[in-house]
Amino acid sequence: MREKILISTGGGDAPGLNAVIFAVVKSATRKGWEVYGSRSGYGGLLDRDDLVRLSPEDVEGILPIGGTILGSTNKGNPFAMPVENLAGEIQVIDVSDKIMSNFKRMGFFCHVAIGGDGSLEIAHRFAQKGMPVIGVPKTIDNDLEATESTFGFDTAVSTATDAIDKLHSTAKSHDRVMVVEVMGRDSGWIALYSGISGGADVILLPEIPFSLDAVCEKIADNELHDKHYSIVVVAEGAASEGGKVMSKGKGELGRDEMVLGGVGEWVAAEIRDRLGKDTRSLVLGHLQRGGSPTTFDRLLALRYGAAAVRMAEAEVFDHMVAWTPPTMTSVPIADAICRRKKVDLSSDKVLTAREIGICLGD
């Protein structure tokens, strides 16, 4: 009997997801395995209509395409699945046993779960229930400690840098301060990389509580040196000294996770009030998740996918593929998700920002 492998994509989308799918299908098929994709996270293990056979022909041409051909969801936690009852009320139920039963009944020997820390935590819980799982890290935030870089990050940074480049011309034309809010949760990787590369005057990171006095002093100094516009890049998880991280409310089902956002608009308003400068804010938001993956992300995603199949052949389960340059290796999923990777404030990148005159808000 031919081995059957399952692949799923969970959480927010990221450029490069299709490249991972491409590599898994191509590599597994060459070993004589059958590959099935589960639509919308674990949907294929709840409804057979959401389970799709993937052949090499099915994945031809998907390498440069953003998103995921399998679809994804942020509301697909099988251990806490929202379901509408007959009365029209939403109840949260645990369907993990049903998924385990279907996984075994369908004869899969391995599940390649592509996702960020939330999706990988779910995968780890299934591994504890007996599912042979291999994780592939996916997050544009680049905040998984166990791997050097995650696919999607380079593309997100390129998108943010391109936006910052375009803002220079309009800011200069109107003598404006432009505040750009980028993603990253409570890690400032996107803000740091795009801010330095895009020639920002100020970069505000979650790792450094910022002083608005310092921000305004930098903008005022620009004025003194006959530069009448400024670019401020702020990570969505940044907070002022003594202040709190701003959010737009609770996440799915009102759980403790906060939906970050709003700090860019607040910083812009404070600059306007303090300096009287024409100040505008821009939230890049999900624009950073879209588009064709860069060459770097495409190749990295292919390497992750091929390595996942090698791990499946070696039966290295409940582990995540990790990139530790120059090679791909594996780490226990539990170790990979136990903490988030923060910007090292003593790193060369941070030193570079300071040495070329960028204000980091401190």
What this model shows, in words?
There is one protein chain. A hairpin with a 7-residue loop joins strand 11 (247-250) and strand 12. Helix content is 34%, strand content 21%. It has 362 residues and is an alpha/beta fold. The termini are far apart. It has a seven-stranded mixed β-sheet, with helices on both faces. The protein contains ten helices and 15 strands. It folds into two domains: 4-151 and 293-325, Rossmann fold (3-Layer(aba) Sandwich), CATH 3.40.50; 154-290 and 344-355, Phosphofructokinase domain (Rossmann fold), CATH 3.40.50. Helix 1 packs parallel to helix 8, helix 4 (153-174) packs across helix 5 (189-197) and helix 6 (212-224) crosses helix 7. The model is unreliable at 252-256 (pLDDT under 50).
Short précis:
The protein has 362 residues and is of the alpha/beta class. Helices cover 34% and strands 21% of the residues. It starts with a strand and ends in a 7-residue tail after the last helix.
